[in-house]
Structures are given as C-alpha cells and as structure tokens.
C-alpha cells in the first residue's frame, strides 16, 4: 500500500534511491511510510480474521437451533471477534494512517522516534498470534465477552492468560505509538505551521494520542488485577473473597468509553479532510471543530457508567451519567453540522472518497441517534445486552471507523502508490458495502426492541426472519471487503493503473499534495517554507 514495490522507475521516478532493498527494508523499517504500510496491511489481515469469526457467528444465527457450533464455542467467537476487531484491526489501521500522513501533513521529515516506531509495530505480531492461537489452547479461547467481565474471566482456561498478555503487549504498542505522534506533532511541524493551521486529521490524532496514554494503563490495571485473582490469591473481583465484580466494570469502562472515541476521532479527522476537498470549499468552522474534538475527549472520561445502568447504581448516579452522555452528543453534532455546512453550496463531485465520506455521515448519524436513545437510563435498562446495542455500536464502529478508513484509503491511495485506483471498482465497493452493511445491522435494531439477547447461540422462532436477513447481509458485506482487496488495493500496490498526478483531487489542500506521487522515500529533509495558509510550499 506504500510507495513500495519498485514500480516507480517504470513511471520515470527515481525517489527510492535511499530505500533499502528486500526483506530488510520491512523488518528494520524506520521510515514512517513503510511502517504505516505495515500497520495497514496488518490491520487488514486482522480485519479478515475477525471477519471470518463474525461470519461463523452469523452462520450459526442464520436459523434457530444449533447448526455449526456449540454455545461455548459461540461465546469464544463473539469474544475474540470483538477483541481482534477493536485491538487488531481498527486501532492499528488508524495508527497506519497516522504514520503515513502526519509527517506529510505537517512538513516533518519522519516521525520523532523512528526505532520506537518500528518496535511498536513489531510488538503487535506476537500479540496477534497469541490472540488467534488461543482457540487451540486447552479449553479453547476466552469466552467472557470482549469486555472480559469478572467473574467469568476468573473461571476461564489458560487461554485467558494468553489473552491478558496479548492485551498488555498491544497496550504497550499503543502507548509508544501515541508518544511518537504527540512528540512529532508538537515538535516537528514546519515553520509557519501553527497548531491552529494544522489539518484536522493531525488535530484529531493529537487528541486521540493523549486519550490513549491516559486510558491504556487503566486497562492494564484491570487485566492485571484479573490475572492476580486467577493465579496469586487476590480477591479484587471475586465475591467469595470479599471482592466486587462491579468494580471491574467501573475500571474497564473508565478505559472502555474513551476507547470508543479513540476509535472514532481519527475517523472524524479523515472525513474532515475529504469533505472540503470534494466540496471545493474550506472546512466550515475549523476552530469549532478543534474545540469540539477536545470537548469530546474531556467528556469521554465522565460518561463511563452509562454502560452499567443495570448494575443497581443509585438514581443520582444514573442521572449524572444520563445527562453527561446526552451532553457528549453536542460536540459530535457540531461536527456533523460543520460537514454538512462545508458541503452546502459547494461545487461537489462524488468520487469514491466523497461517497464514503457522505455515506459515513449518514450511517454514523444513525449510530449516534441510537446511542442518544440508549443514554436514557429507563430505555437502556430495557435494551441492555440486546441486539439493539449490537446494532448501535456496529453503526458507530463499522459505519463510523471503517467507512471513514475507506474514505481515507481512496483519498490518499494515489499518493501512497503513485497510481489511480479504478473509479468504477471503487463505486462498486462503496454501494456493495453500504447496502450489505445496512441489510446486516439495521434489522438488529428490531431484534433488540423485540427482546433478543446478544451472545446467545440459539433463539426463539419469532426472531428467525430478521436473523436470516442479517446473516445474508453479513456474508455479502464480508465478500465486498475481499473484492476491495483483490480489485482495488492489490492492483494499486502492484502499480497497475493510470499514473497518479501529484494532486489528483482538484479541491484537495495540504502539504501532502505538494510532494510527488508516489510520495518519495524521504520527504521534507529540509523543513519546507509555507505560505500564509500553511497549506502550500513557497520557494
């Protein structure tokens, strides 16, 4: 996915004269573009692994009764699907975008800590292997749900320990990546690139990186306490020894709710780059977007217990978390309105990146509204652990994070590879994904409202029709992503397609469009001199 694969000379470029050759280039990679490419390829691989688990779940739920897997294995599938998608697919993919684009967007020569950058990527490989290998351990994979709630985690087999170790390693990787991003953005911007002139993608990642540093140690604490409960005789979460399982939930969600925003803020950043480019207008209300992003980050720390309305908290607590959750909808709404205002009266064109961005705004808004409904405690108590919640968070994470990623991939792919993707194939991928996604997850709202609990391998006959529809949609959605890889990503990585101009999108602004396509192995060896808007290089 990078300025890789040695097709550049065929296009008359000679940018790669510094690039090491062969496997050493990738194993010892310190170049931010190569590491970004590794992250993106790793994330796509894990997306496929997590997707296979999801399709096994949907295959089981295609009809009532037990078809393919027993309930124990079903719970292992739901647990590992969640863990792999969150920690193995979405988060690494956004770090891949950050590695590729932040130095290009701020005029930096590379990331601040190149070797730490390499280390933070390679840490993820053993963690991913441990997660996938847990299926083959005695007793199978962890089956406590991706939230790893006690006391279930205290009763799991040895794979639980492998899972905890994998989460620790992934957390360390995230913290190192975040330190790198913060130092790069704060210390390595080109002269003239003030903070309030940075692209929105850099802003959202700067705030995301601070969130990661704040909450990953909280997750580490929760799973370490779980580990000591399992093996060292402590009773943090074991009621038999005076422990409290609900305490685990408080600690986990104090990590888990900011984590949700960690997975969506970089998506907001990508959409904030794409929408102005294809509307041929400046982003409406740039400063308000920056402040809204900061507000979301701060508020994300005071809403955690809205995941816990059914744990028996006092009414005062319910009211606090209900209102704080409603409040966080305000800065999110600011962003939606700003994107729409950016498009308003713009001379819009609908190339594939813009289709994904507009599709993102539409479906993410649905996910946001269902979240607002769940913020109302009396309603949430009815909806808790039903398919309504599954529908809600997939609208946020698939229609949110993943659709924005595709917008970013199509937008920057010409810069990464030096070739233009096939517009027809991109549009096919978009419509195929958009329709099959809604066919999969929209019926789940009705299943949840009718009372179907999640994480059950079997269900009464009354839920059969919607489940069959959802399963068909799920398989269609999965095949669409394989189509994307084979028909769009692979040809671009191999350099097949029309040669990309330096600036393939007429309305695009930013320093990344000031370097050739594909981006040379070394960019901005001397800091560029910027014009007053900090979007172009002068001299």
UniProtKB/TrEMBL annotation:
Q: GO:BP terms for this protein?
A: electron transport coupled proton transport; oxidative phosphorylation; respiratory electron transport chain
Question: Is Translocase one of the keywords UniProt gives this record?
Answer: yes
Output the InterPro entries linked to this UniProt entry. Answer: Cyt_c_oxase-like_su1_dom, Cyt_c_oxase-like_su1_sf, Cyt_C_Oxase_1, Cyt_c_Oxase_su1_BS, Cyt_c_oxase_su1_dom, Cyt_c_oxidase_su1_bac
Keyword terms, alphabetized: Cell membrane, Copper, Electron transport, Heme, Iron, Membrane, Metal-binding, Oxidoreductase, Respiratory chain, Translocase, Transmembrane, Transmembrane helix, Transport
What is the annotated localization of this protein? Answer: Cell membrane; Membrane
Domain Cytochrome oxidase subunit I profile, first and last residues per copy? 17-531
Its EC number is 7.1.1.9
Q: How does it sit in the membrane?
A: Multi-pass membrane protein
Pfam families this protein is in? COX1 (PF00115)
GO cellular component, alphabetical, reads:
plasma membrane; respiratory chain complex IV
* GO molecular function annotation: cytochrome-c oxidase activity; heme binding; metal ion binding; oxidoreductase activity
Reactions mediated catalytically? 4 Fe(II)-[cytochrome c] + O2 + 8 H(+)(in) = 4 Fe(III)-[cytochrome c] + 2 H2O + 4 H(+)(out)
Give the stretches traversing the membrane: 38-59, 79-100, 121-144, 164-188, 200-227, 247-271, 283-307, 319-341, 353-373, 393-413, 429-448, 468-493
Origin superkingdom = Bacteria
Associated pathway: Energy metabolism; oxidative phosphorylation
Q: Which family does it belong to?
A: Belongs to the heme-copper respiratory oxidase family.
Which PANTHER family does this chain map to? CYTOCHROME C OXIDASE SUBUNIT 1
Annotated protein name in UniProt: Cytochrome c oxidase subunit 1
Gene name, Swiss-Prot/TrEMBL: ctaD
